[in-house]
Every structure is written in C-alpha cells, then in structure tokens.
Amino acid sequence: MGKADRTSGAFWFLFSLLLSYESYKLGLGTVRQPGPGFLFFWTSIIIAFLALTVFLTSLKKKARTESIKSVFVKSSLLKLLLVLSSLFIYALLIEWLGFLIVTLLLFLFLLGVIEKKNLGFTILVSLAVTALSYLIFEVGLESQLPKGPLEFLRF
Amino acid sequence: MDPIMMEIFQNVMYGFEVALQPVHLMYCFFGVLLGTLVGVLPGLGPAAAIALLLPATFKVTPVAATIMLAGIYYGAMYGGSTTSILVNIPGEAASVVTCLDGYQMARKGRAGPALGISAFGSFIAGTLAVIALTFVGPPLSNLAIAFGPPEFFSLMIVGITVLTYLSSGSMIKALIMAGVGLILSGVGMDTISGKYRFTFHLRSLLDGIGIVPVAMGLFGISEVFLNLETEMKRDILSSRIKNLFPTLKDWADSIWSIIRGSILGFFLGIIPGGGAVVSSFASYAIEKKVSKHPEEFGKGAIQGVAGPEAANNAGAGGSFIPLLTLGIPANPVMAILLGALMIHGLQPGPMLIKNAPDLFWGTIVSMYIGNGMLLVLNLPLIPLWVKVLKVPYYLLYPLILLFCLIGAYSLENSAPDIIIMLIFGILGFLMKKFQYDGAPLILALVLGQKLETSFRRSLIMSHGDFSIFVSRPISLAFLITAFLLLLIPILTQRKKLSALRGD
Description:
B: two-stranded antiparallel sheet, globular
C-alpha cells in the first residue's frame, strides 16, 4: 500500500485542514462554554495528525511500492463508471419521470447495454422486475414512490 | 421465589404475550427468513439489508418493526454459514472464518454435518445468548440510569476505541474513519446553539446526514461495485447434501466448542465495538489453541465450524444489550437499528425498559421464538438456498441496486438521499480499495451527536474543568479502558487476528 497510502494520507490531511478551518469559523467558544465548532476543530486536528502519520509511514515503504493503478482493475473501470452514471441519472430523473419509467430504463440499460443480454430477455426481465417491485413497494408497503407522467394511471 | 427472579419471570411471560401475537410472529418469521436470505446472498450483509428494509417497517408498530429487523440480523448469521460451507464465499463478514473448515468438510463429502452442526450450534448459542440477555439486561439498565453526561461520553469513547482496535487493517486508518464519522454527525443543526454546521448551503444537508443512506452506500452499493470489478467465481457443490443431522461423534467433538463459542461470543457481543464478526475470529483462534489436533484446522475440523458459528450467533444476541440498555450500538448493524428505533419515536437507553416494556421484552422473547424458527427453517430449506446461490450475478446486482435505490428514496421520499447513498457508495468502494474500514465511521456517525452533547454538557457542568471525566469512577474506568486499548502493545494479538483474517 505504498503509493496508495500516500494518496489517501494526503487526501485525508487536506480534508481535515478544510474541516478544521470550517470548524474554526463556526466558533470554538471557551472551555467553560464550548461552541459549535469546538469538538470538530479538535477532531480535525487529530485526523490531520493521523493522516500525516499514514502519509509519512508510506514514504518508508518505498521498497515495495505499488502504483495506485494496481489498486483498481482497469478492465472493469468503464463498466463501473457506466453503472455508477446510470444510478446518478436514476436519482436525478426519478421525481421527474416517476419510478416506473426510470426503473424500466435502468434495467434495460443494465441488462441490455452493460450485461449485453439478448433483447427479448432484457425486455422481459426489466418489465417483470419493474412491475413486481412496484407491487411490493408501492402497493404492498405503501412506499409513496413518485409516479411522474404516469400519475393518471392511479394504480 | 426470589423477588428479582419473580420479576424477570413475569417480564418474560409478558414478553411471550407480546411476541406470540400473530402479527408479531409473522414479522419475526419474515425477519428470520429475509435474514437467512441476506446471509446466503454474498454481497448483501445484514447492515445493508436492515437499512434497505427499514422503510418497509414505517407502516407497522415499533415492536413489530424491531422484531423483524432483529430477526434479519440473527437470521443472517445462520444464512451466512450456508454460502461459506457450500461455495467458500462468506455470505456476510461473520461467516468468513467458517469457510476455512466448513468448505473443506464439504469437499470431503461432509457438507451435511457441517451445515447441520452450524445450524444446531447457532441455535444453542442464540438461545443461550437470549437467556443471558434476559438476566443481564435489567440490572445493566438500572445501573445505567445513574450515568451522567461524563459517563456516557467516556462509554462512547470506549465503544469507538474498541471498534477501531478490532477493525481489520491499520488502527490509525480506523481512527481516521472514526474521526470522519464524528464530523459527519455534526452536519446539520447544532442542537445546543441552533447554528447550522458543515451544510455548505445545501438544503439537503440541513437535517444532517442520515445513517441509513450512509450505511447502504458503505455496505451495500460499494460491495456491488467491488463484485462488479472482480467477477465472482462460484464453485457450488453439485452433489446431494445428505446427513444433515450430525452423528453422536460429531456432537461429542463439537459440543464444548459450541459452549465455549457461546460464552465468548456473548461477552464479546456486549462490549461496544465487538459483535458477531470479532467473536467468530476469536472463537476460531481459541478452538485451534485448545484442540488436541490443531493441524486438522483448515482441513475440515468440525470444531472450526461449530465454535465460530456458535460465537457469531451469541455475539449477535449479546450486541443487543448495549443498544437496549444503554442506547449505545455495539456495531454498525446495531447502529442502524438504533436509527430505526429513533425513526419510530423511541429513544433506546436505560429508560427503554420502563417506557416501552412491550418492545424490550417482546423483542427479547421473539428471539427465542426466532431461533426456533431458524432451526426448523434452515435445515429443510437448504436446497432452496443453494438454488438462490445459483442466481447469476448479472441478475442479482441490478436487484440489490434497485432495493438500495428504493430504500434510500423511501426514507424521506427524497432523491438527494439517493445521491448521498451513491456518494458514500463511491467512498466505501475507495475505502475498501485503500484498506479503510467503514465500521468505525458508521458507529461514530451514530454516536456523534450524543457524544458531542455529553461532552459539552459535561464541560458546562464542571465549568470547563476537564477533570470531570476522570474524577467520576465509572467514567475514569471507561477512559482507562480506552487508553489501554490505544496504548498497550497487545499488538501481537492484533497482528495474529489480522493474519487470521488474511489481511
């Protein structure tokens, strides 16, 4: 974990500096009357110290350094990014298009595009999962999922 | 009869009255069934399962909800062993160690006795833990009523320290995670000053960061990403599983392992930061040490299955004690359960036993019933679980993702919660890649607000004198424990534990 630790150590160090600044801005108060930033300021300082330790210890591990790239499996990176993007798009569209449409689209994408399953299978499974999950969560458990343009259906 | 015993007896009877109501029996059944399923499915642990099923409990009473969510937890302990034994893939973290000997037993054609002894061992341990819980809970609850802010602050520090001490990998990294969790707990409005903190003018952060989206991200989404990255190879044993009932020799070989595992698991479960995962590893190490044939461990020793399986179930039972009596979750699963109880308008802690006796005793007694259900359910349903295991991952992961998406959305009917979950999913994925443990983060996130309030109230009480934390004996004892955990070089043991985990 040579270079990887160096990267994560540096990240948490910078992150803790930002947090300590934010906590300081909130007001530290006094020891008698600690302010809203008091605990978090000191916590950030401790994190900074710990992150620095991770960073400095990693410098000693130079001999068996690994690159950050080796931490990730390169061949799957595109697949991961595509799945992740589809989930973010799902979150952005769910209230606009409604649960039924976005869920159907998500499954069509995951099975058809990412997993490259044949069209018939993809459509069948996507329709079945969308309908079943709607029945379980909306009808059975009354989860109040957004309906979007299909609101007129009232089922 | 002793009046205390009489009171406990009456309470247990009351618990039976609550737990045996048909609706509660039904939720108990659903809980253990879902728990077993979650335990069987690799890539979906009990923490994520409880988190994503939480919205499904909003429409039911808090008692029914708690009974079901508790059932998921201890049910998962049973289910987890099935995949460890048959596929060599632990269904959840507490069953990692079962792979070592369970899978070897299966390869030698002894999958049946391995599954059988783990089910019976789990049942015995689970029941023993619940009996102990019945007796330990009330006195601990009475003791905790005397706790003031300094005691609570110190106890929470111990909890976080224990978890960082026991978490896999580097302790420094675990402490960083605990710190990050603590800071995340501060997001939103400060209850003392009324000021907004770390919201960066984002409306979705005004109410703070919920435990559930964070847990689903860290434990659910990130696990899917990891599995997507490295295709899971599953080598399911195709031979028929026979002789599920262990022979007399199997019993003779494993009964003491089960008893030792039960006691160890229960006590490790009580300690904040402990729980099922740690118990199973510790039990394996002990069994190997006391065995006359340690060389057989890793090659299919039945004690290597019986001990850890008993320990993880007893640990699961034991970890309910700090939650129900002190309001302190012992591990991430309990942390989510705490969140669930709070959503249902309950405040777990010393007063819970008095304010909601139906919930306290009903849940405890439901565990007796649930353990019985699991025993009946597990053995005959093993062929079904094997079929579940054969569901290809290209179908499974979209379903897990969908459950997470629905779960995160339904909490507050808000899309930003999905975004928070996804962000923590990415963070969880990166954390696993860079070997940071998510458990201290989630525990600190849950305890954070209470910890900060106790800390500030203690200082206000003492007019800024920090000695308040060391001048009160209980608080001092907690802090000494935390200090020792941070300092004493028991590192050798930690290293051994890490080596056993294969870190």
